[in-house]
Each structure stands twice: as C-alpha cells, then as structure tokens.
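FORM 7B: Structural annotation worksheet

SECTION A. Query
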Amino acid sequence: MSRRPQLYHWQRQLASRLPHLPKVIVALLALWSLGLLLARRCGLDGVAGQLARLRRQSPNTTRQRLREFYQEAAAKRGGRRRDFDVTTCFAALLRWVLSYWSCRRLALALDVTNLGDRFHVLCASVLYGGIGIPVAWRILPANQPDPWHPHWCDLLARLAPAVPPGFVVVVLTDRGLESARLFAAIAAVGWHPLMRVKAAGQFRPAGWVRWHAFGRLVPRPGARFAAAGQAYRTAAPPLACTLLGCWQEGHAEPWLLLTDLAPAAASPCWYAFRAWVEQGFKVIKGGLLHWQRTRMSDPGRAERLWLAIAVTILWLVVIGAVVEGDRRRETVGELGAAAAPPRRQRLLEVGLAEWLAAQLSGRPLPRGPLPPDPWPDVWHEVPTLTEQEFCPG
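SECTION B. Predicted structure
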C-alpha cells in the first residue's frame, strides 16, 4: 500500500481512530472505503471490479479478500481467522467526529431506515452540515417481532462515554419513535430529548387542572406554545417534561415536541436539523453508495459493511466542510461566514470532488476543525397562559 500514498495515509488514520481493530480488519476497511469511492456503490462486485484494476489482481481474488471484512470468523478460510464486533467502534466513531468539533453543542438523531422487506436499520447519526453521519446502528431482519427499545438503549449506552463533560447533546426523534420510555432513556445518559409527538397525546401544563390534546394547544397557523408539565395521562406515572409547539404559516400541521429542557432554554426550530438524517440515508441508499441494491441477507454482515459506509461518509464530510469553510472565508471573510448563502452541493459531494482532485494532483487533503453550524435562537419571550386564559378557538 505504500505505493499508493493516499490509501496508506487513510489506513494509518483508521488504525489510529479505531486502535482496537485487528490490523488485517483495518486494512480491509481502508480497501472497502476506497472501493466505495471508486465504484460509487457498495455492491461487492462493483467494488471488487474497481479495486482489482488498481491492485492488479483478478476480480475473484479481490472479491474474496473483501468478503473477509464482513464475514464472521467461522465462514473464513485458514487457521488465523479474525472477527470483530462492530459495536465496539461506535464510541470511537463519535470521538472521531468530535475531535473536529469547534463548539460544545451537538445534535444527534435517532431514526429508522428500511431496506424493502429485508432489513430495519436503527441508526444514530451526528447531524452536521445538512447531512447525518452514522455513528451507531443496529440492523434487524424485517417483518420479525423484535422490540426496538432495548436496541436504542444499547446504542445510547455505547455512545455516551464518547461525549466529553460540558457538551449539550440534543437527541431528535420523529413521531414513529414517540415513547415515554425512550424519552427517559435519552435523559438517563445526560442528554436532552427533542421528541416529535402525535397531536392526539395529552398534556397538562404545570398549575393546570385539565389535560389537553397536544394538537389542541397549538390550534392554528401562527400559534406557539411552550410550558412545563406532564404528558401521557394514562402513563404510570405521567412523564414530566416540557411541551414546545410551533405552527408556522404555510405548513399543514404544527411541530409538537417534548423535551426535558426548560421552556426558555430550547427552541422547536432545532427540530429542523432532523431533516438532515434523511439526507444521510439518501446518500447511502441512492445518492452515492446505492446500498438499496445490495444482495446481502445477513444482518450481521450488513452491520459490518455499514462501518465502511460510515467512515467513508465521515471522511468526505470533514474534507468537504474544511473546503467549504476556506471558500467562504475567501469570499465573505471571517465575520460574514455565518451569513453565507445556502450551499449548492452537499458537503459529501464537495469532499468527494476534493478527494478526486487530490488523487490526480498528488496534493495533500485539507485538514482543520469543522466550522460550527448556526443554531436557531431559543425563545426569549415564551408565551405563558393560565388555564383560565387559554382559549383554543
């Protein structure tokens, strides 16, 4: 590999970021990552075809070598068969992302993406620069009874040690994951849930006597609501939380969100970050890597392949963010960078273009901290009503 400096340096970086992995696994991970970029897909045949030409090997030899990355030890040939547990990489991946971080606030999303009737992917992603970077996941067979809550708790427990003290971590979830148990699990690791809920759930603001449907508290476009209280009347006990509601003009329905933060310490506008996880899934399943075409049927092997997907996305997003930050400073200066126009390309696409240019020119890849994303301001004037003043009509 020393004859290919970029691959050699990438392998060294993987070894330093994931030091617990066997060297042979790190070498295969670097190969897979390079193959994903060259093939623009994650199918074994496509990746092997690209790498075989580069390594001057037969496609069959390269294909068998790549298989050894995601195969369990019992399926491999030889007497020195090695295996690895992908879950041991999750905290290291998050530490890797945070090593570039330049602020003390972090947005994570918990979400599920499906692969037809084959897999459910439970994924925790760092939200940055318009995309979700996977840092922990569990892949389950579809259409089989398997409660998700224990898996979410396991992912949270594996990621929590990676976050340094003093970080404010906001965890965003959509209505499909609405759960008082998940809310409590997020809060239990010291993070702050921002959980979108269905309008039919019930909430009782502190000091009020009656319970009201979430949706009734934000009844029309332009309405806002923020109050501490209790949610889920029939729960034992009801969930102590804050309800944030916001219905912006031009939208069909409001955002109704539960959090453990005080009403004046959070904003429902933060929930806009959750759309970025969908962009991450789009890149994985169609926009760049075309994982939706995989013929894999074993969830464990798919989980190992997702490690190659995750480190590739992380690599390209970091490169793209540094390039974009340099460009903005050149055009609008340090003070105007926060007000720069919206990006026309995903950071991942910018990073891929820079990576290809570095391969052709032989120049080093850019390095530097990730410029922080601007967060919407919290509500400084929170609307407060007594129960007597509340009039949804």
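SECTION C. Observations
The two ends are 70 Å apart (CA to CA). The chain has one domain: 85-385.

SECTION D. Sign-off
Analyst initials: ____
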